[in-house]
Amino acid sequence: MLHPEQVKEMIQSVAPCEFIEVEGDGHHFFARIVSPAFEGLNRLARHRLIKDGLAEKLASNELHALSISMAATPAEWEKAGKA
């Protein structure tokens, strides 16, 4: 069973992140991600970037389910007052 910290490390291996928050029960995880890698990408492309990078883990069911509730650029994050 995975822990949220392990999922955070997996995401960071896919894209450089300024902020990641992962919550989950060991099977289903929810992530909020802020990354400069999202610059110029629409919402779907941002999610695909992460999911494609984790495709092997998802396909093997090592990572059962990952929902990305937020995928923002650093500028969007700052504009929202979160920085």
From TrEMBL:
Identify its protein family. Answer: Belongs to the BolA/IbaG family.
Quote the protein name from its UniProt record.
Answer: BolA/IbaG family iron-sulfur metabolism protein
**InterPro entries per the UniProt record, alphabetical:** BolA, BolA-like_sf, BolA/IbaG_stress_morph_reg
Origin species: Kingella pumchi
